[in-house]
Amino acid sequence: MADLDDLRDGTDFGGSAAPAGGFHLKGQAGQDWGLRARLSRVFDPADGKTVMLAFDHGYFQGPTSGLERLDRSILPLVPQADALMCTRGALRTTIPPENGKGIVLRASGGPSILKELSDEELAVSIDDAVRLDAAALAVQVFVGGENETKSIKNLTTLVDQGQGAGIPVLAVTAVGRDMVRDARYFRLATRISAELGAAFVKTYYVEDGFETITSACPVPIVIAGGKKVEEREALRVAYQAIQEGAAGVDMGRNVFQSEHPAAMLAAVRGVVHDGLTSSDAFDLFQTLSH
Ligand code: 5RP
Q1: Residue 2 carries which DSSP code?
Q2: In this predicted model, what pLDDT tens digit does every residue of 19-36 receive, in sequence order?
Q3: Pocket-forming residues, ligand 1, beta carbon under 6 Å
Q4: Residue 152 CB: number of other CB atoms within 10 A?
Q5: Is 11 helix (H, G, I), strand (E, B) or coil?
Q6: What tens digit of pLDDT does each residue of 70-82 get?
Q7: Out of 101, 202, 227, 228, which one is annotated catalytic?
Q8: How far is CA 113 from CA 42, 54, 108, 190, 272, in A?
Q9: What's the pLDDT at 20?
């Protein structure tokens, strides 16, 4: 039986309430507690930014360059990331559950690079996402693509399921090979994604007018790294994106296809979290590479 001696009535009820505080992510203050808690495992509450390490490419590309052996290429990088974007297969087989990172679980799939990529279906049940303790669910949206409506339906279905379980959804704006990647297109794709319930949106950086994409999108935007380029250039793009309103980067190939992935990830962290300029970040990359 609990000790009932000396039960003291509370007396210290004075003073003004501690500030409730706004939530650190754009457009997400009204979400449920669990959903905000999960978002806080992806975006660092200290600055509202994230460095996500994306290695979900195998879900349609197979063992692409740099991802032949996830155990060798990705595991050593895990401590440096805020969040990991991966498939449930990679997660269960390769990532230890004690990793401590927010897991952004790839939740759509279907076609391989041999077929029409926009023909995706949802590929993870909400029950399995809960079992995997996913911090977010990622789904591809193909605005203007051959299967636009189907991919939007995937997004809204996942948002309905995610809201029920308190799991935020990341909409990944996928651009067809023959489509123009400009600010006008990405304003359209990101805004549609946010209006239909995505808690954050992944898109590409564009040189002309990126700030109009981030300002017109009512939820945080993270940028994909895109195809492998020189480290100096990838860091410049990351820096520009952050300056122009991105809440982080979700980078894959420009990290794991670098000759020095750990140095590259550290340099990206410098840009996103430590306010490094792209040239300071490149210096850091070179120092850590040697
Ligand atoms: C696949 C994805 C990838 O995770 C993403 O594009 C990876 O990033 P990167 O472009 O930096 O390799 O969403 O469609």
Answers
A1: -
A2: 666 899 999 999 999 999
A3: 54, 56-57, 85, 172, 174, 224-226, 251-254
A4: 18
A5: coil
A6: 999 999 999 999 9
A7: 202
A8: 29, 18, 14, 24, 32
A9: 60
